[in-house]
């Protein structure tokens, strides 16, 4: 089940963050996300309330930027990331969002394929974006509205 992150999820979300990323966010950073009106964190929760994965984003003026998508190793290749992306898309559409964008390591082919499967398009590349190890990032975006429908700020 995909649900908004609550305080009871924070420790498990942080553990997955540490497991999956070379430069993980702190536990305090995830606690702060609960108070941030521009942050959305959704978790994939098992029937026994274990957090299997999460997606964390910033949402502002119709644009959503994915900070992190992570699935714990025992739950990979079970469609959890797809469920998180679908849940996120539904949430952003319900708030009249126009697009979702993200950066992904150029070498992370499984993630790139997952994003492409969900309609994300390659729109750019950021040189030496990642550290530890240093690597380029691909910039991918999913447009939720047609260009003529997009608002200007």
Automatic annotation (TrEMBL):
Residues 1-145 form the N-acetyltransferase domain. It is found in: Cytoplasm. SUPFAM superfamilies: Acyl-CoA N-acyltransferases (Nat). Its main location: cytoplasm. Coiled coil: none annotated. InterPro entries: AcTrfase_RimI/Ard1, Acyl_CoA_acyltransferase, GNAT_dom, N-term/lysine_N-AcTrnsfr. It catalyses: N-terminal L-alanyl-[ribosomal protein bS18] + acetyl-CoA = N-terminal N(alpha)-acetyl-L-alanyl-[ribosomal protein bS18] + CoA + H(+). Belongs to the acetyltransferase family. RimI subfamily. Acetylates the N-terminal alanine of ribosomal protein bS18. This is [Ribosomal protein bS18]-alanine N-acetyltransferase. It comes from Clostridium facile.
